[in-house]
Design goal:
The chain is built from 9 helices and 15 strands. By secondary structure, the chain is of the alpha+beta class. The mean pLDDT is 96. It binds pyridoxal-5'-phosphate.
Length: 290
């Protein structure tokens, strides 16, 4: 069955679904996106994703192209047309089609694209053993809180990580502090079990998974501190992990080839992993069948 995409009001086979060569997403990366996880036919934390989409658009001087209710219907239709109960849904909104000119075009209609594909959750072995990360300088722009489709520095860093045999790269700012990973937020656990992650601000994307994990931790008596941490501190931490729509809660067991703690996923990380799976309605099996 060929995949069906929603593009500007039409549902079409993905091979035939196109945008104009003068689309500002293509020419300027003048747009934003969301990636949403779907479990048992239900998009998870959709409200929060749509709120973040509205915020990202607002920062670009744009409004939501449709009401949240209309977007929900489109997401549901794309899922149904693709026969997907478990999925990763991609929503992209950009400033639309206009002759190439940096200035905002007058009267252009935003382009809206919605696609869905089978999700690729972390493999059970990655959760059992954790994943390696490398560190790289953070070369991105100064507004990482906007979920922009301009992802070239993330793409280049992820490729370097993969070539180094790593799942992710942790990005390090000029002060030696960890910002986040290329498509996930970065965390460490302290010796007393407190979890630490960088506060929301222009330096990082405010991850939806990050927000959920903070809430789950607080509800379950896990101490939380939102503050920057250095690469040095991460190297000395007993546990580290990343969070993201695609990564879930994923233990990080080596940084630049050096073991984190004893080199195995720690109890706090695995507890948060389990809590997060339960929140999403994902089977505990993801971990238990390793
Ligand atoms: N940080 C960056 C740079 C990302 O691209 C992402 C997700 O794509 C995240 C963090 C995690 O965000 P979320 O939990 O909303 O998927």
């Amino acid at each position: 069955m060929s995949r069906i995409a929603y593009v500007n009001g039409r549902y079409q086979p993905i091979g035939r679904a196109t945008v104009s060569i003068e689309d500002r997403g293509l020419q300027f990366a003048d747009g934003v996106y969301e990636m949403i996880k779907v479990v048992d036919g239900r998009p998870r934390d959709l409200e929060r994703h749509l709120e973040r989409l509205a915020r990202s658009l607002h920062e670009l001087g744009m409004a939501m192209p449709l009401t949240p209710a209309a977007l929900r219907l489109i997401v549901a239709r794309v899922l149904a047309l693709n026969g997907l109960g478990a999925a990763a849904v991609y929503i992209q909104v950009d400033r639309g089609v206009a002759p190439r000119n940096h200035a905002f075009p007058k009267g252009a209609k935003p382009s809206l694209v919605v696609t869905a594909r089978r999700p690729t959750w972390p493999k059970p072995a990655e959760i059992e053993h954790g994943v390696p990360v490398i560190t790289l300088p953070d070369w991105r722009w100064a507004r990482r809180d906007i979920k922009s489709i301009a992802l070239l520095p993330n793409v280049l860093a992820r490729q370097k990580a993969l070539e180094a045999g790593c799942r992710e790269a942790w990005l390090i700012d000029a002060a030696g502090l960890v910002t986040e990973a290329t498509s996930a937020n970065a965390w460490i656990v302290l010796n007393d079990g407190t979890i630490v992650t960088r506060p929301k601000g222009p330096e990082i994307l405010g991850g939806i998974t990050r927000a959920v994990v903070l809430e789950l931790a607080r509800e379950n008596g896990i101490e939380v501190v939102e503050r920057p941490f250095s690469l040095d501190e991460a190297r000395r931490a007993p546990e580290a992990f990343i969070t993201g729509t695609g990564s879930l809660v994923l233990p990080v067991t080596t940084i630049d080839g050096r073991k984190v703690g004893d080199g195995r996923p720690g109890p706090t990380t695995l507890r948060l992993h389990d809590l997060y799976l339960a929140h999403c309605g994902l089977p505990h099996r993801l971990r238990a069948t390793a």
